Amino acid sequence: MIVSSDINRRKFLKTTCGTIASLGVSSLSPVMSFAKDKSMPLRIGYLPITDATPILIAHYHRYFHEEGLDVARPIKVRRWSTLTESFFSNKFNVTHMLFPIPIWMRFNRKFPVKVVAWNHMNGSAITVKANSGIEAFKDLAGKQIAVPYWYSMHNIILQMGLKKAGLKPVIKPESAPLEPNEVNLFILPPPEMPSALVANKIDGFIVAEPYNAIAELKIKAKILRFTGDMWKNHPCCVVVMNEKHIQSNPVFTQKVVNAIVRAQLWINKNPEKTAYILSKEGGKYLPVSHKTLTQVFTGYDQSVYGTGNVPHAIRHPLWNVQRIGFQPYPYPSATQFIMSEMRHTLMEGDTRFLKSIHIENSAKDLVNDSFVRHAILSVGGIHQFMTSDLKMSDPWNREEILDI
Questions:
Q1: For a designed S-S bond to 134, which of 113, 139, 359, 402 qualifies (C-beta 3.0 to 4.6 A apart)?
Q2: Helix, strand, coil % in the chain, rounded to nearest 5
Q3: What is the pTM of this model?
Q4: What per-residue string of b and e applies to 267-291 under the rule 16 or more CB within 10 Å gives b?
């Protein structure tokens, strides 16, 4: 059954109550579902990037409130390390994280984190200065490239591209000499990347939006490749919660996921309105202009990035992907691929734990998809999130498509 994103509240809650009951907890009446859930306040932390969009839109449209949750305005933090440590300490009980971070948290730090949904797809790019002479991956030889975090989709995808071009990613002091085939990688907080590029401290960066769009509009930088054009509709940030909270309060968990799924559906139907809500002129969730965010949510023009342009940032127009996309279901094939690829990705720190995990079993252990399945069914089914890789006959599974 197809329903709009602004679904009838009572109808939605009747469906939700049934799905919650199937999880083994008591069903709530539609009226009582609007009552405050006093069991646990919802504490949200986020980085001011578009990766956080569904959580922020769910807050703006009061979807969490409509679910009966006690929620304050989400709190901005500047670095992934800060967000991670805040989640460790239970300052935040719901947040978005780069997919590799909860893998590290659960299997290295033994922290009971669970992925409960995808937060967004694609939404990142590799950006270089316009006059740098960098037109393809091979031109990154001998260059300094910033990544936002070692345990990031950005680091994984960048290194896939470098290796295919015959280059060797290394981690060296910035002043250290590089071999002709080496590319030096280092961590830089996303907000600092555009200014570092214009100051010639780096030769390029890979990061989430809106910092690629900021560099395009403010310093006339160029997109080398969109990551969604390298790995079709790849996950980037995921929604995470503490497994202990999930087990002790599945009703709370279902309500959180319901709100986020509703937000994703609304975003897909209203990309330009989403850009305004997030902007400093609108809801002030991101310290970024409406113009810049409009570039993120609508700026994927073949005439600008496709064939005939240098660099050639979009090479797969038939994939029919978006610059940033939203689909909440955590496909197991993607989780397994990420775990496998992390074993071959250069990072600082002890990564031996990646060699010891059983990928298929660990992927199942990391992700709890029961709540998001119920939430998706409550808004009309996964076909509401039509993406070009969705199999009509088997929508809960997909094949990962990559062409670096």
A1: 139
A2: 45, 15, 40
A3: 0.90
A4: bbeebeebbebbbeebbebbebbbe
Q: Residue 114: CA atoms inside 13 Å, Cβ hemisphere, count?
A: 19
Burial class (CB in 10 A: 0-12, 13-18, 19+), 226: buried
> Domains in the chain, please, with CATH?
9-121+236-283+325-385 (3.40.190.10), 124-233 (3.40.190.10)
Cβ atoms 324, 312 nearer than 8 A: no
Sign of CA dihedral 6, 8, 12, 15: negative
DSSP code for 73: P
Q: Give pLDDT tens digits for 282-341.
A: 999 999 999 999 999 999 999 999 999 999 999 999 999 999 999 999 999 999 999 999
By the 10 Å C-beta count (0-12 exposed, 13-18 middle, 19+ buried), 394 is classed as exposed
Distance of CA 299 to the CA centre of its chain: 18
Amino acid at 338: I
- Helices (runs of H) and strands (runs of E) counted in the chain: 17, 15
DSSP codes, 309-346: -SS-----GGG---SEE------HHHHHHHHHHHTTS-
Angle at 140 between CA 139 and CA 146, to 5 degrees: 155
